[in-house]
Amino acid sequence: MVTSILMSPGAIAGTVIGCVVGALLIGLIIALIVLFTKKPNKNRPAKIDNPTGFVQAVGSNFYDGNGDIVFFHGINLGNWFIQEPWMAVSAVGNFEQDENGKDRPYTQQRGLDAMRANPNLNEDQIRELRELYMEKYIQEEDFKQIADLGMNIVRLPFSYRNFEGMDGFKYLDWALDMCEKYKLYAVVDFHGAYGSQNMDDHSGDDVTWDLYGNPENEAKTVALWEKIAERYKDRKIIMGYDLLNETRKAPHKFAGKLTFDFYDRLYKAIRAIDKNHMIIVEYFTFPIHGARLSNYNWENVSVQYHFYNLTPLPQKFVMNLMRAMHNWMQPKRCAVLTGEFCICTGDKEWNIMLDWLQKTGWSYCSWTYKTNAFMYKTRDNFKEYWGIIELNEPPVDLHTATYEEIKAKYEGVGSENAVRPSKLYNMYIARVEKDKLYGGPAKID
């Protein structure tokens, strides 16, 4: 006997909807599995056929000027061109307060303003002190130290302020010369744009967000990149141009299409002068914050991410989540530079991170080479991993100190006066031989 069951239209609709939802959920789960497990560097040809003499981004890999695949592993030279308040040797005391009457921290702009308000200083002395700091904080021995640690790249964060009241090109030129001498590639990193692209202290100004939509600041930022491109278009030691650091679409809001449209303007301005150097665009904070590269007609472009895991989630899980987001945003494979990261929880997590980056094929520059431990931990408690080289200097107040006091402080910021070794230094020493397997020194004709 066959029993037929007639279903009402509502029941049929509910069943259909349930099936559709179930199928979508299954599809979503499959898609997530694919995104999490897809390897960005599955295809890794050891060599390409069309070398240009410059570093290129081809597929998910980087290739040097000879066309050989290269994995970049290095360090940032933070706190040099732009001092940051948490590791600076300079302070501004009670020069300026916020709306709650609390002293504002040191920033590059506030430091300059404090010096100009200091009755003990004149403009010539201010310029001399700024140049003294630049000459002392990073010296030739530091580039040798980085090379001795088995690294093959340095990232050079600078601000437009380094070109006002002083000759920033003098120090960029010298840094590139040192990179050539010690066979280190360089990333030229525009860390602080006119008007500030993020209103963070590491842009040099934490009270202004006035780049996008300000015709003057936009034009000045474009013009400085044009000067950089004209000056360095033949410098093969430069791995790439890092257009803007940690951009935001609005104060305290992650980057979006607004920033990528401005990247496009910078890209076109540079390409009109320099068709050879790779260009790097940053996503801040996550790979989904921004636009797909496929939306723009760009060539020889790579992406950059920064990793500071401030969550309780395991480091490896967070990295795999970032990779899944990357795979979603960039279905057409592209090369990745991990331009900044730091892990303050110990050697184990550092090694997990570095092993993951090398296995995944995401080149990296950790943050940062040298810090001032006095500013973020006690003298006898060097447990964190921010700097390979650590000073331990109380900062000098730029608003009240005499010329002689500031000069004495800046005379002593060389690495020969650093507290050594830091835990991060020892960790990197232990990896020197291992890391050499993933890319050697720069090969420049």
Layout of strands and helices, then pairs:
Layout: H1 9-37, E1 56-58, E2 61-63, E3 69-70, E4 73-76, E5 90-91, H2 108-117, H3 123-137, H4 140-148, E6 153-159, H5 168-181, E7 185-192, H6 215-232, E8 238-242, E9 248-250, E10 253-254, H7 257-271, E11 278-282, E12 301-307, H8 315-329, E13 336-341, H9 347-360, E14 363-366, E15 370-372, E16 389-391, E17 396-397, H10 403-411, H11 423-435
Parallel strand pairs: 4-6, 4-14, 5-17, 6-7, 7-8, 8-11, 11-12, 12-13, 13-14, 15-16
Antiparallel strand pairs: 1-2, 2-3, 9-10
Helix pairs in contact: 1-8, 3-10, 6-7
Can you give me a brief rundown of this structure?
The protein is of the alpha/beta class and 445 residues long.
Which short descriptors sum up this protein?
single chain, 445 residues, alpha/beta, 3-stranded antiparallel beta sheet, 11 helices, 17 strands, disordered N terminus
- Kindly name the structural category: alpha/beta
Sheet of most strands = 8 strands, parallel, barrel
Classify the helix fraction into a percent range.
25-40%
Order of helices and strands: HEEEEEHHHEHEHEEEHEEHEHEEEEHH
The total count of strands amounts to 17
Low-confidence stretches: 1-7, 20-24
Q: DSSP strand (E) fraction? A: 15-25%
Total helical segments: 11
**Taking strands numbered 1, 2, ... along the chain, how are they ordered across the largest sheet?**
4-6-7-8-11-12-13-14
How would you describe the shape?
globular
| pLDDT averaged residue by residue | 88
Radius of gyration: 24 Å
Distance between the termini: 88 Å
